[in-house]
Hints:
By secondary structure, this protein is mostly helical. The chain is globular, with a radius of gyration of 24 Å. The chain has helices spanning 6-28, 31-52, 58-80, 83-99, 106-117, 124-134, 140-147, 151-167, 180-199, 210-226, 231-244, 270-283, 291-304, 313-326, 330-344, 346-353, 366-378, 382-395, 399-411.
Amino acid sequence: xxxxxxxxxxxxxxQLAPRVLGAVLRRSGDFxxxxxxxxxxxxxxxxQWPARGMPSNPHGWxxxxxxxxxxxxxxxxxxxxxxxxxxxxxQPARAEAAADADSRPAADDTLSLLLLCCHPAxxxxxxxxxxxxxxxxxxxxxxxxxxxxxxSTMTRRITRAKRSIQExxxxxxxxxxxxxxxxxxxxxxxxxxxxxxxxxxxxxxQLHRVELTSEAIRLTRQIxxxxxxxxxxxxxxxxMLLTEARRPARTTEDGALVPLAEQDRGRxxxxxxxxxxxxxxxxxxxxxxGPYQLQAAIAAVHAEAGRAEDTDWPQIxxxxxxxxxxxxxxxxxxxxAVAVAMVDGPAAGLELIAPLENDDRMxxxxxxxxxxxxxLEMAGEYTEAKAAYRLAARQTTSRPERRYLSLRADQVSLxxxxxGGRTTPRTAG
Length: 429
């Protein structure tokens, strides 16, 4: 047994969690109780492994402990009813769950779990929320932030989703081939949100959570292998690759955020850029264009610019207009506004985001405030820009973003100071 590093242990447990849940759930069939049992096993691992060392088979250890916890739950319930009859009925399933914990590839279980969470008995919002909780291991607070809803609302949504899966009699395992298309939209949206949380974490000290972006890319590759002709799956994968390629240049050595316009593009991952550009270039002509393909096309335009000042902003504006028609959302509007400001000036960008200030989902969101601050700075409204940057810094729960926004507030030129507005976007890339 080797003694694990705290950070390595956290990453390992996060990667193992959905696989362990899938392995136990495959035989138990009880989503809610199985998730509780797996959480107890993960907690036991976090407490025991640093002191006793990591087992040679961490996945098998967690499956065994979770299965025992589940067995204890069943026994307790059986004792309150008819102990001998119910315990005897449950025993074969429990034994089989532990016995074949490693009999199928872990990736198989993770993908099956993903598809179960996107069961058609659930609304799309519930499918996405449950998958983020069970497959990605995000906290309820992080999922609520992704959905722009209160944490209490998300807690109820996840609880109802697990109950609905149970009541629908859903079974763990790959659905029939014809059902893949029915669940695809929720699966893709889920992977998109998992990636976004990993690329810009909603809270904590770190800007990136590489284990989440890596997992999202891995699962998207798997689904593309299942449905290789689907343009939106290819578009989503291209978008992830092109975005992830920028990660090495997004922070300084001390973890400070570097906006897209100021990144050293020589540090971008050339292999990921090439794969992403090739994928979206091959996909666009042969399939019906959807939102993920459009976002990938925008990312490709940025990737093809050797310098920030070489960016083809008119083309990006045109792509955002298409995206707003196909899949309107507040976040799309914010990005569209920045692009419009680069072509038509900051006043046009401010006009575009003005309706969002009356949108209940966005009034307290730091991204709206940060974009408004940037556009005000471009327009020479320095006092208002400084105040907006400071407000955005207070609104975000990400410490790297808070540090960056506070620094921007300190650096904004004031009237009569001789400074001038920026001509390139200062938002994160």
